[in-house]
Each structure stands twice: as C-alpha cells, then as structure tokens.
Design goal:
Blueprint lengths: L1 H21 L2 E3 L4 E8 L14 E4 L8 E4 L4 H10 L19 E11 L2 E6 L4 E3 L4 E2 L5 E3 L4 E4 L4 E4 L1 H4 L1 E4 L9 E2 L10 E3 L10 E8 L2
Parallel strand pairs: 3-4, 12-13
Antiparallel strand pairs: 1-2, 2-4, 2-15, 3-12, 5-6, 5-9, 5-15, 7-8, 7-14, 10-11
Amino acid sequence: MTSRILAAGLLLAASAVAQEADSLKVDEKAGTVSFGGKVAQFDKYEQLKGAIEYLLVMPGGKEYEAIFVAKVDGVALYEGMKKIGLTPGKSGSQDDKIAPEGGNLKIWVSWKDGDKERKEPAETFVLDALVNKPMEQKPWVFNGSREVFNPAEGKMTLGVLNTKNVVALYWNDSTVLVQTGVASKDAHQFKVNKAAVPKSGTAVRITFEATK
C-alpha cells in the first residue's frame, strides 16, 4: 500500500512539473511571455527536403512544416503579448511584397542539453538556403492574427484558433499571431537548420520578448 501511495505521489508531482513547464507566463516587468513546447518532427515528409513555413505551431497545425510545437492557448498568448506592450498590427503580403506591421519582438528558445542550459535566438534554427546561413536576425512582428469564422464556436474569433499556426516564416498566412520581419525571395528559402536544432521531441521553452 505504501509503495502505491508513493507511486501515486510521484505521478502527481511529475504531472505538476509537466503542467508548470507548459504553462504560459507573462512577465510585464521583463516584457516577456514564455511557454513550454517541443521540437517538431520536421523530417516527416521526405519530399519537403527540410523546407518549412512556420517556426511555431500548436498541435493540429502544420507540424510537418514547423520547427517547434507548443500546447499554448492562442487567445491567452495574444492577450499576454498585449500586456507586455506589444500592439497587434496587420499581416504582410508575400505576393504584393508588403511587410507585416505591429509590435516588434525577439523570440528565444531555451532547452537543456545534457547538464547544460542553452538559450538561442529563434533564427539560429532556421537555415536560409539561399546563402546557407542561419536566418537574418530582424525583429519579429506581432501582426495579431486576422479574425475568421470559427465553426466550433459559431462566431468570429482569432484565425490562429482555427489553423493552429502561431509564428510564420512567410507573409502568406494572415491567421498567425507573429510573422517574420525577413522578406523571402523563394518559396523554399527557409529550412530546418539541422546542425543547430535539438532532436525531435526535445522539450524547450519559448520566450517572446518585446523590443523597440
């Protein structure tokens, strides 16, 4: 009986740790919003040859074209970003070469590499295939996700709740919350930087930091 109680206690503790790791944290003083996630299975379809369109999605989004997946509440994340001073703007247009508008931010990814704590800017994990170097570091943009009709709720809601795609590397998805500030020249320009990204399934913590 004692062993059963101990096992149950350990299970509850592990569950609490997991929930804490995935929880959304808003630090208005530091100007950050952070939440837990994991490295996606980005090599699922060989025909894509590593090409990606998203930095971050939720489960149910285009995980096969993303680097990270996080069980984060889209509305809570949207509101948290506003709390740290970010203003939602409007999406860019890839076809019209119109850059997105909105509050600027940096995106950081931290994880445990053995006994070592690592933290890198998100661009580290995105390879610009045109120059064979990590993606240029420019501010990410809080475009804010356009509203669309949500059939599950029967009303207009943030598009991110439908598509589950959170951070885009291209300006052709107006439902995301964040778009890159880097203009792309080719549909297959951005790929997974396999030399830098942790293995698929690795737990990470993603931080959005408001910048000027």
